[in-house]
Design brief:
- With 613 residues, this protein is of the alpha/beta class.
- The protein has 3 domains: 296 residues, 3-Layer(bba) Sandwich (FAD/NAD(P)-binding domain), CATH 3.50.50.60; 108 residues, Succinate dehydrogenase/fumarate reductase flavoprotein, catalytic domain (Flavocytochrome C3, Chain A, domain 1, Alpha-Beta Complex), CATH 3.90.700; 140 residues, Fumarate reductase/succinate dehydrogenase flavoprotein-like, C-terminal domain (Methane Monooxygenase Hydroxylase, Chain G, domain 1), CATH 1.20.58.100.
- The chain is 34% helix and 17% strand.
- Strands 1, 2, 6, 7, 8, 9 and 16 form a 7-stranded mixed sheet that branches. A 6-stranded mixed sheet has the order 17-15-10-21-22-18, with helices on one face.
- Helix 1 packs parallel to helix 4.
- The longest helix has 25 residues.
- The protein binds flavin-adenine dinucleotide (FAD).
- The site of flavin-adenine dinucleotide (FAD) has 44 residues, from helix 1, strand 2, helix 4, strand 7 and helix 5.
Length: 613
């Protein structure tokens, strides 16, 4: 058994930043990651990082924009932490050598982004994430932090006390891709989940194939509540054939969207009379799909994004990567032609519920980055606000798990006295049928009784070894790819930008059917080395839970807020819905409950206003 003070699961921006912080605070840290760190999806981030750095801008303006962008579902204390601390974190990156783009006077450049009242997005060309990831990885290497790469974490080693708030986490169990060995990693102080996004639950997404929501699903099955999972961001400018992202930086630099009639529809059709293309992402995505649905789309599918008027010099200087993406994936020369774009799944605003230090309600278990919900994005994330979240909350969680006193959190994780129980009418029973739990579809939580931390880890190891063996031993059944494709199809058809009750219910029926089929899942490849089919089969198990969490939350929230549009409920219902959707895994079934959004910040309350751009 490997043993460290802190185990960080995932080595994207959030994982790397938290590992650095924990190590600086004196902890002995190891990172366990299914990809090599620099292959993490943070490397795909293009447009930039928001931070109030210049005269005329300040953290209060950034906080105001973020609360408005969230449609008043973010928690103000977390938003204020993000906006107060992102400038020093960006400066820290600069000091570590990150190659930011610069103005002629030598200052780090900033560009406008959607929903921002000041051009506060710092960037490194259109490859910001690549530079961020490499800068952080260099620091990890320099510090000698141990990295177990190509190790797939199967499960968390947690106790199984009846009340999740009484549980504790003591490590993880992981599968080594190269050898097929299953090993335990005990964490003396804590585990930080930094496993990134879940876009593979949709079939048109900007997310990589590795973004399968593993951390969210593992934490959920270990009893940690997940928050606001229905809030999925659909980015307005993805390439139609692949889902590859065309950065908001293109519109930030002045790129224009046209429909098939050559109209600049965001202005001409009144979707966003002030900000046009730089309205918030949810607004632009709905506008594009409305154009397509009303017959003004191109080839009934997409609209055009034109940057030709910016001129070759500016495009090559600031957006060169976009030229390559359009050429390579769509065969379009962005200097000569407009690029085809349509909305695609991009980001999960919700995730594992945490406080402002990344702590979950399970003692010793933290979550940061896209898998977590510290609640800084609410119902809609502003472009450029995810990368600062990685570094601000990564650092906070790293310091906290290593024992630094950061004070008391203002937002409590777990059930609180002002939480309310709820229920939702579903067409099928949700969750795992009792009889299948503990089989190939294992639940979380090792049986603990009076166990010591080490025996909790050992028991989890035993169970996970059995699970892998069972999957390898079966020689017939259903292959996971069919199940995954069915889930992706129903999510894309029924739980997309526009949502209606009957479609959401249909999705739940399909997910239920997919779950039933998973009971017979088998892995055709019997090998122990590089058995990626085995790993993908386990990822598909996680996607089933993710799909269900998103859909049940979407069905329950009968209002229109941010990215969550409901056909039958066309208004934002502040009297009823200024609250977070929470889903907890209870004995195999998801339980839904609510807790109030915290709109009171350090010095003021962010009163909900009409959100127009
Ligand atoms: C194309 C694209 C462009 C974007 N551009 C921007 C932008 O310009 N600005 C902005 O603010 N945001 C942007 N975003 C959002 C932002 O980049 C992501 O939210 C963020 O990078 C996620 O970082 P992360 O560290 O949480 O996860 P990731 O970088 O995805 O890292 C996840 C890590 O977890 C590991 N992992 C996952 N599951 C397991 C497991 N079971 N076992 C072991 N390891 C595991 C992986 O190996 C990986 O190392 C963009 C997103 C996309 C998709």
């Amino acid at each position: 058994m490997h043993e460290y003070d802190v185990i960080v699961v995932g080595a994207g921006g959030a994982g790397l930043r938290s590992a650095i912080a924990a190590q600086e605070a004196g902890a002995d840290v190891a990172m366990v990651t299914k990809l090599h760190p620099v292959r993490s999806h943070t490397g795909a981030a293009e447009g930039g990082i928001n931070a109030a750095l210049r005269d005329g801008d300040d953290w209060e303006m950034h906080a105001y924009d973020t609360m408005k962008g969230s449609d008043y579902l973010a928690d103000a204390p977390a938003v204020e932490a993000l906006t107060q601390e992102s400038p020093e974190e960006v400066i820290q990156l600069e000091h570590w050598g990150m190659a930011f783009s610069r103005d002629d006077d030598g200052r780090v450049s900033q560009r406008p982004f959607g929903g921002l009242s000041f051009p506060r997005t710092t960037y490194a060309g259109a490859e910001t994430g690549h530079h961020l990831l490499h800068t952080l990885y260099e620091q990890v290497v320099k510090r000698g932090i141990e990295v177990f790469d190509e190790w797939y974490v199967l499960n968390l080693a947690t106790t199984d006390d009846a009340d999740p708030g009484e549980r504790s986490c003591h490590g993880v169990v992981a599968y080594e891709t190269a050898t097929g060995e299953v090993e335990a990693f005990r964490a003396r102080d804590g585990v930080i989940l930094a496993t990134g996004g879940l876009g593979q639950v949709y079939d048109h997404t900007t997310n990589a194939v590795a973004n399968t929501g593993d951390g969210v699903a593992m934490a959920y099955r270990a009893g940690v509540p997940v928050e606001d999972m229905e809030m999925i961001q659909f980015h307005p400018t993805t390439l139609p054939s692949t889902g590859v992202l065309i950065s908001e930086g293109v519109r930030g630099e002045g790129g224009i969207l046209y429909n098939d009639d050559g109209e600049r529809f965001l202005f001409e059709r009144g979707y966003a009379n002030n900000d046009g293309e730089l309205a918030s992402r949810d607004v632009v995505s709905r506008a594009e799909l409305t154009e397509v649905n009303e017959g003004r789309g191109i080839e009934d599918e997409y609209v055009h994004l034109d940057m030709r008027h910016l001129g070759e010099e500016r495009i090559v200087d600031r957006l060169e990567n976009i030229l390559h993406l359009a050429e390579d994936f769509e065969g379009v020369d962005g200097l000569e032609e407009p690029m085809p774009v349509k909305p695609g799944q991009h980001y999960a605003m919700g995730g594992i519920e945490t406080d402002e230090f990344g702590q979950t309600c399970v003692d010793g278990l933290y979550a940061v980055g896209e898998c977590a919900c510290a609640s800084v994005h609410g119902a809609n994330r502003l472009g450029g606000n995810a990368l600062p979240e990685l570094i601000v909350f990564g650092k906070r969680a790293g310091r906290h798990v290593a024992g630094e006193d950061l004070g008391d959190p203002q937002v409590t994780a777990g059930w609180t006295p002002d939480a309310e129980a709820a229920s939702v009418d579903t067409p099928v029973s949700l969750g795992e049928p009792w009889a299948t739990r503990g089989d190939a579809v294992a639940d979380g939580g090792a049986t603990a009784d009076t166990a010591t931390a080490t025996t909790v880890v050992e028991r989890t190891l035993e169970r996970e070894r059995e699970r892998v063996e069972r999957l390898r031993d079966r020689d017939e059944g259903t292959q996971h790819a069919d199940i995954r494709a069915a889930v992706q199809r129903t999510m894309t058809e029924n739980v997309n930008v526009f949502r209606e009750e009957s479609a959401l219910k249909e999705a739940l029926v399909d997910i239920h059917a997919a779950r039933e089929r998973y009971r017979d899942v088998y892995v055709a490849d019997p090998s122990s080395t590089y058995n990626t089919e085995l790993i993908q089969t386990i990822e598909t198990r996680n996607l089933l839970d993710i799909a269900e969490m998103i859909t049940v939350g979407a069905l329950a929230r009968d209002e229109f807020r941010g990215a969550h549009w409901r056909k039958e409920h066309q208004e934002r219902k502040d009297d009823e819905w200024l609250k977070h959707t929470m889903v907890s895994w209870s004995d195999g079934s998801p339980e839904i409950w609510y807790k109030p959004a915290v709109l009171r910040g350090e010095a003021k309350t962010y009163e909900p206003k009409e959100r127009s751009y």
